[in-house]
Every structure is written in structure tokens, then in C-alpha cells.
Write a structure and sequence with these properties.
With 332 residues, the chain is of the alpha/beta class. It contains twelve helices and twelve strands. The strands form two sheets. Strands 6-7-8-3-9-10-12-11 form an eight-stranded mixed β-sheet, with helices on both faces. Strands 2-1-4-5 form a four-stranded antiparallel β-sheet, with helices on one face. A hairpin with a 2-residue loop joins strand 4 and strand 5. Helix 4 packs across helix 5, helix 5 packs across helix 6 and helix 6 runs parallel beside helix 7. It is globular, with a radius of gyration of 21 Å. The two termini are 37 Å apart. The structure holds iron/sulfur cluster. The site of iron/sulfur cluster has 12 residues, from helix 12. It comes from Emergencia timonensis. Its main location: membrane. This is ABC transporter ATP-binding protein. It is found in: Cell membrane.
């Protein structure tokens, strides 16, 4: 199957008062047509920056894509005009932002907000746009009679449904969902995720789902990319990552969630904090928190190893355990 999205060697930087921050560092990631990839990592790992880069929403100053390519259906999005990019946004690629409260215009009815998107992207009459707006509201489980209501008249979960309706209004091929349930009550989270899943099945939309919740990934994705300090440090199928994770950070993520079949007195968080992006450690960026760190980890950046089934891992320990040192010592 063809890749709908292919990110190659992407570097995104922010120039801040504290110095240059490499928010995304040499990221490679691909997504097959119709598939869902979960992008997992702690706050500050660079997930949102990566997502915004795909839609070219990184604003200068302070941020910019320094190098690399983002291919959407073979077209390099980093090399096209803003005019072309505008046509792709919404029509082909849509994004659900984290906070539905800030994603909606408070002084415009939700019906108008949805139909405007449809009218702009599909160049249809206002009557046709209104018709489609109503069917989108129905699809996300909102009574179309509420189209004349304003965002403040909706609950958080309903607002997020409206945001999803806007994101899907033009039947995008690719949906980038950035923590779509973070701002919602636990009771509403499952409903919203079910909604995205159902819509994917109905419309065949590919999904890049950004989250810090491995449970959400398990229920919604076929592939998992683990991001740490701006890099994808492990990638693989859902089964591989859940059954055979190789990177110590991934191991730490799994250890930090409660397991149904084990009595839990205390959760085991990953010790330490994500490093300051303006002052990253030498060598492996995870080494200050890694219980397996050796001398080499402190100075040499590990290379990415690709296993036969597409599972990749970036760790010196994997090289050592599999006798892959020769030619793979990493670099400073
Ligand atoms: Fe730990 Fe070393 Fe692997 Fe980094 S390279 S994750 S410090 S073992």
C-alpha cells in the first residue's frame, strides 16, 4: 500500500531568548493510506510541532522548518507555495487541535463555522454548504437544529464534536488529531475517540493521533511512534511496540501505567524530567534518565536500527545486545 505521508529528515527549530531549540530533530515517519499511527511522548517531546509542521503551521518568528521534506501523496509540502498549501489544508489534510474551547469562534454560530469551511473548500452554494453542514452535525451526533447555537451553549465534549465536524467537513484523506480528548471529561473521551474511529471506517481517512496515553493508542492505532526530545526513538506496529518494545524510554512508559492483572501499590514513573530543549544532553538525550546508560551513551548519539518488520529503535543497548557495534557506534 502507498504512503499517504512521508516525513524525511525533518528538522524544526525555534529561536528563543534562551537559545535555539531543536523541537524536531531529524524525524523520519511514514503513514500508509488508511492506517492510523499513534505519536506518543511526554509534554515537550515535539509532537505538536511535528503535527503543525505537516500542515505548515509553524510560524516564524520564532519557529521554522530548517530542513527535510514532508511528502503528502508524493508532493513535497515544504516546497509548494502558500496558495497551494491552503488548498491542501482542510481539503486533503485536517487537524483537530488540543483545546476545543479555543479552536472555535465564540461569536459565530457553530452551523456557520462548519458551513463556511465547506463553502471555502468545496466551492459550493450556501444552500449546499448548509445541507452538508447539517449532515456533518448528524454524523458527529449533534442535532442539526442546534446549528444556530453558539459555542458557549455547548459542553466541552460537544464543542470537540463540532471541531471534529469542521476537521472532517471536506472529507480529508489525512486527519492529524493533537490530543483530541485531553481537554475533555473522562466520560466524554471514549465517545470522541469512538466517533473518530467510526468516521475513519466510514470515510477511509488516515490518522496521525498524538497522545501521551498508550491506552488510547492501543484502541485506535495500528502503528506507534515514540517521540522523545524531538526524535522518534522507537517505531513499530502496535503489536511489536506492546509486545516487544526495545527502547528503555518505551519500557518506562509501559511501566508507568497500571496493569489490570497486577496489584499496584505504587506506579513506577520514569525518573527525572524531559531535558531542557535549549540545553540538551550530549550523546543519547535520554541518558540522564536511563537505568541502562553506559559510558558510550553519555557521548555518542545512537543510530537508528531497523529490524526486518519495520520496527526501528535508536539505542546503544540494542546494538550491544545484538552484537551490532561494528559500524554502528553512533556519533558525537
Ligand atoms: Fe539508555 Fe544508552 Fe539506550 Fe540511551 S542509548 S536509551 S542511555 S541504553
Amino acid at each position: 500500500m502507498d504512503n499517504i505521508l512521508e516525513i524525511k529528515d525533518l528538522i524544526v527549530r525555534y529561536e528563543t531568548e534562551d537559545g535555539v531549540v531543536e523541537a524536531v530533530n531529524s524525524v523520519n515517519l511514514s503513514l500508509r493510506q488508511g492506517a492510523a499511527v499513534g505519536l506518543v511522548g511526554e509534554t515537550g517531546a515535539g509532537k505538536t510541532t511535528l503535527a503543525k509542521s505537516i500542515l505548515r503551521l509553524i510560524q516564524w518568528p520564532p519557529g521554522r522548518i530548517v530542513s527535510g521534506q514532508i511528502f503528502y501523496n508524493g508532493k513535497d509540502l515544504t516546497a509548494i507555495s502558500e496558495e497551494e498549501m491552503c488548498k491542501i489544508r482542510g481539503n486533503d489534510i485536517s487537524m483537530i487541535f488540543q483545546d476545543p474551547m479555543t479552536a472555535l469562534n465564540p461569536v459565530m454560530t457553530i452551523g456557520k463555522q462548519i458551513s463556511e469551511v465547506i463553502a471555502v473548500h468545496e466551492k459550493v452554494s450556501s444552500a449546499e454548504a448548509e445541507e452538508k453542514m447539517k449532515s456533518m452535525l448528524t454524523m458527529v451526533g449533534i442535532d442539526p437544529q442546534r446549528a444556530e447555537d453558539y459555542p458557549h451553549q455547548f459542553s466541552g465534549g460537544m464543542k470537540q464534536r463540532v471541531v471534529i465536524a469542521i476537521a472532517l467537513a471536506c472529507n480529508p484523506n489525512l486527519l492529524v488529531a493533537d490530543e483530541p480528548t485531553t481537554a475533555l471529561d473522562v466520560t466524554i473521551q471514549a465517545q470522541v475517540l469512538d466517533l473518530i474511529k467510526n468516521l475513519r471506517e466510514k470515510l477511509g481517512t488516515s490518522l496521525l493521533l498524538i497522545t501521551h496515553d498508550l491506552g488510547v493508542v492501543a484502541q485506535n492505532c495500528e502503528y506507534v511512534a515514540i517521540m522523545y526530545a524531538g526524535e522518534i526513538i522507537e517505531y513499530g506496529s502496535l503489536r511489536e511496540i506492546f509486545k516487544n518494545s526495545l527502547h528503555p524510554y518505551t519500557e518506562g512508559l509501559f511501566n508507568s501505567i497500571p496493569k489490570l492483572h497486577e496489584a499496584v501499590n505504587r506506579l513506577k514513573p520514569i525518573e527525572g524530567l524531559m531535558p531542557d530543549p535549549a540545553n540538551l544532553p550530549q550523546g543519547c538525550k535520554f541518558h540522564p534518565r536511563c537505568k541502562y546508560a553506559k559510558e558510550i551513551c553519555l557521548t555518542q548519539i545512537p543510530v537508528n536500527f531497523e529490524l526486518e518488520d519495520g520496527h526501528t529503535v535508536c539505542c546503544h543497548r540494542y546494538a550491544e545486545e545484538n552484537d551490532l557495534w561494528e559500524g554502528a557506534e553512533g556519533h558525537e
